[in-house]
């Protein structure tokens, strides 16, 4: 006789061959009602016939959207995965008290990858970034430090799209290599000075096979985007002219007088920026370097890298954190960081400086995506190797190099 566990509060139920020794609903934590139920096991013989050669099970549980076997694996998980994926089921394994929990979810066929929408968004973003670039270039042209503002803005656009694009393509390549369904990158246009975009993202539409792959997937974008940013900042500094300081101040003041209400934008000094400035920027005594707008795209790239590496939800850093910390501690870390960002941002709103108020918004977004959790990789039982942990460490190091309390601020 099977036992049916029904939640008193939500729709969740489980029908188990043997006692589950459970009093509470795993979905919401409310009390379970327990009934006896007659199940025609013949209905599941197709499943039992497959599983018996690969998994020794002590208990079998039927849920609304999945089956659960509790016991011991006989075959390698890769074999189990192959068999069930061919039948359009996604197997997930977890380990609890020395027992393996094998969940089988009916695979939802991922829809065809959209191409038109990503293309439209890319074109819109190119325009809005170009517009932002113009805002940087016009003042420089008027001051005589840039010859052609259209060309300068084009360089700005190429720089920023290159950085964001290489970040997303790195994810896409790792996804394709590991047979994970992923969308094409969606660029987010923001037709406002000073950046012109809210970055780009790709969505993952099929489960990540294992923890090692989740780390690679999460790290790939930030790593490549970080390298691209370093290259762009270095080129930007190299093409920034050094001009006599007295002349620069004179022209800047004249520009400000001719355009009342203009303000400047300052960027926080991240460790990586400090290092690059120290290596490449050396104006002689009495000279000032007029920063080329291309440099700014690299600084934005560094900023985007830091935002994505936050270990929240399914952000890039979230994939890494989930693999290293596991479900429970990833959730705790995720929400703690989101709430800290909100607190940190509030502090910034009241103090104005030295904290960026925008952290509050990122904290809210982070809290929302943290609450949705992370499905975890299919195989969360196989342990990470030292090499995998090293990749996670690289993620942490890049994050430290890219983060600053005030990434962006207005200079009146
Ligand atoms: Zn419930
Ligand atoms: Zn990313």
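Q: What amino acid sequence fits the structure above?
A:
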């Amino acid at each position: 006789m099977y036992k049916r566990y029904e939640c008193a509060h939500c729709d969740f139920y489980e029908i188990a061959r043997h006692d589950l020794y459970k009093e509470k609903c795993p979905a919401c934590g409310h009390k379970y009602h327990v009934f006896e139920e007659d199940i025609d096991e013949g209905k599941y013989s197709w499943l039992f016939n497959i599983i018996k050669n690969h998994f020794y099970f002590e208990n079998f549980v039927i849920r609304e959207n999945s089956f659960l076997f509790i016991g011991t694996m006989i075959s390698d998980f890769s074999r189990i995965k192959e068999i069930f994926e061919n039948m359009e089921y996604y197997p997930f394994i977890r380990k609890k008290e020395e027992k393996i929990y094998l969940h089988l979810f009916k695979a939802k066929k991922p829809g065809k990858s959209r191409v038109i929408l990503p293309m439209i968004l890319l074109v819109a973003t190119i325009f809005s970034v170009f517009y932002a670039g113009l805002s940087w270039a016009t003042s420089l042209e008027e001051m005589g430090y840039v010859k052609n503002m259209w060309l300068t803005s084009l360089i700005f656009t190429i720089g920023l799209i290159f950085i964001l694009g290489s970040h997303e393509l790195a994810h896409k390549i790792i996804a394709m290599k590991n047979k994970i369904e992923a969308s094409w990158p969606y660029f987010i246009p923001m037709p406002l000075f000073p950046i012109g975009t809210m970055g780009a993202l790709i969505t993952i539409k099929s489960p990540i096979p294992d923890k090692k792959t989740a780390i690679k997937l999460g790290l790939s974008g930030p790593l490549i985007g970080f390298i691209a940013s370093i290259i762009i900042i270095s080129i930007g500094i190299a093409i920034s002219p050094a001009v006599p300081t007295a002349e620069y101040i004179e022209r800047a003041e004249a520009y400000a007088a001719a355009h009342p209400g203009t303000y400047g934008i300052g960027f926080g000094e991240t460790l990586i920026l400090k290092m690059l400035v120290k290596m490449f920027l050396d104006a002689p005594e009495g000279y000032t370097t007029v920063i080329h707008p291309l440099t700014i795209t690299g600084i934005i790239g560094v900023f985007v890298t830091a935002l994505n590496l936050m270990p929240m939800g399914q952000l890039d850093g979230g994939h890494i954190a989930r693999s290293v910390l596991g479900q429970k501690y990833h959730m705790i870390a995720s929400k703690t960081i989101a709430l800290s960002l909100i607190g940190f941002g509030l502090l910034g709103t009241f103090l104005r400086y030295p904290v960026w108020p925008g952290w509050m918004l990122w904290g809210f977004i982070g809290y929302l995506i943290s609450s949705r959790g992370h499905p975890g990789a299919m195989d969360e039982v196989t342990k990470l190797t030292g090499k995998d942990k090293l990749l996670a460490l690289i993620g942490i190091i890049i994050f430290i190099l890219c983060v600053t309390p005030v990434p962006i601020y207005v200079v009146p």
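Q: And what stands out in the fold?
A: The chain has eleven helices and 13 strands.
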